[in-house]
Amino acid sequence: MSVGLETTNILVLGKADNLHQQVLASFPLCDATEEDLTQNPHFSKLLATLSQHVDKSGLTVSLKTELDVAEEKLQNQKRQWLRSESLHRGLHEMIQEFHVRKQNTTVPPDQNMFYETMERSLRVTQCVRQLDPSSTTRQEQPSVLGLTPQQVTQLLPSEKNMQRMKQALPRQLEKHLKEKCLRLLSYYQPEWENDSEALKTNKLSHLSTLLDKEKKRTELLREICRENTVLLQRQTQLYLSELLKCVQLLQTLILDHRLKIQTDLDSKKLDYFEGKCELVLQKIKTEMVEIQLETYSPDTISAHRKIREKLEGELKACKAEKQAVESNLSSFEILGKAFEALAEEYCKLRQEIDMKNWALKELTKYNEK
Predict the structure, then answer these.
(1) Residue 186 to residues 200, 215, 216, 218, 304: CA-CA distances in angstroms?
(2) What digits encode the pLDDT tens for the residues 128-187?
(3) Residue 10: its pLDDT value, please?
(4) Cα separation, 74 vs 80, whole angstroms
(5) Across all residues in the chain, what is the average pLDDT?
(6) What is the mean pLDDT of residues 197-204?
(7) Is pLDDT at 317 greater than 80 in this prediction?
(8) More confident call, 305 vs 261
(9) Which are the contacts of 178, defined by CB distance < 8 A and separation ≥ 6?
(10) Which residues, other chains included, contact 36 with Cβ-Cβ below 8 Å and sequence gap of 6+?
(11) What is the C-alpha to C-alpha distance for residues 179 and 172, in angstroms, rounded to an integer?
(12) β-pair partners for 60
């Protein structure tokens, strides 16, 4: 029976094709997409069933009711505390303003008595509360300096001054709060500062309504901002996934076509550099010819060319002779150490023959003289 009821609820919730959108709207904090729900239909049905029992924050209906009741009690306690705290701070502000005014102007005796009585009463009351915290903490604490609340209470002003202060206090407090509210009104709308007091009072009665509207508008904008943030996160995730696919496709294109394009590019670069080198060589030759023409005359250049040709011919002949001698020397070295001894003896005999020939020439020159 319960299974059939849940199935009916799911069909009612998602009787159209927008079931996934309704599930995502019911769980805005769930980091899931329509693609995830399409690939997992059972999980989508589970979320659709849960949406009947929980709210957008993930709390159950009963827990949400208890939370609302506790929140209401907490708000009531906050209002009570804020009311008493506001009155207490208002009294202290009145005392501070009195002391400042007393330093600048002369204060009437009745006001002086009123503020001194109120300040003294507040101090004594605060001391009594510190000495006897049982009314707030329900705990007994040791006394401070051996004092008791009854001893401190004796420091209160006289009954007559207390009665006068209590009679004038509502009027003075109302005046102070009104001035404070008017300052708040001027801060909220500075253009109303120059209006009359009656008009300000009239506008002040509508200030709470205006602030309430502003608060609701702020909460609405905050909720819209939160929804836009969730939507932006989803769109960012989709964008990143699509961007990753594009990057992978681009890498594939680069890997497939880069080698072909690189080969054509390298061949074109090679042709370009070959042409550039040829151009540079021709330019160098032209510069060399120009330098020769500027340095030597045509006849000198022709003579240098002939000399160069002759020297190159002699160099070629010397290289050939050197090669032949080296070839003969290598063939002699093959004969070994025995030939080396003969070669040394031949060198000695050659030297002796040269010496005797020189001596014979010298002797012949001497005889001729």
Answers:
(1) 9, 18, 22, 21, 108
(2) 777 766 555 555 555 656 677 777 777 778 888 888 888 888 888 888 888 888 777 777
(3) 40
(4) 10
(5) 78
(6) 73
(7) yes
(8) 305
(9) 201
(10) 43
(11) 11
(12) 54
**At a CB cut-off of 8 Å and minimum separation 6, what does 10 contact?**
45, 48, 49
Averaged pLDDT, 40-51: 73
Are 139 and 133 contacting, i.e. CB atoms less than 8 angstroms apart? yes
Q: Of 21-25, 120-124, 155-159, 346-350, which range is least confident? A: 21-25
What are the two backbone dihedrals, phi and then psi, of residue 346, each rounded to the nearest 5 degrees? -65, -40
Angle 223-229-234 from CA coordinates, rounded to 5°: 135
* Sign of the four-CA dihedral 173, 179, 185, 187: negative
Angle between helices 197-205 and 207-295 (to 10 degrees): 90
Average of pLDDT values for 332-347?
Answer: 73
Judge whether 149 and 131 are in contact, CB under 8 Å. yes
Contact criterion met (CB below 8 Å) for 8 and 49: no
Instruction: Report yes or no: 207 and 184 within 8 Å, Cβ to Cβ.
Output: yes
Q: Cα separation of 56 and 52, whole Å?
A: 11
Structure-token match 């890997």, residue found: 255
Separation in Å, CA 347 to CA 38, 162, 327, 344, 353 = 109, 151, 20, 5, 10
What are the domain boundaries of the chain? 2-58, 62-136+146-205
pLDDT of 225 over the 90 cut = yes
User: For 150, phi and psi rounded to 5 degrees?
Assistant: -65, -40
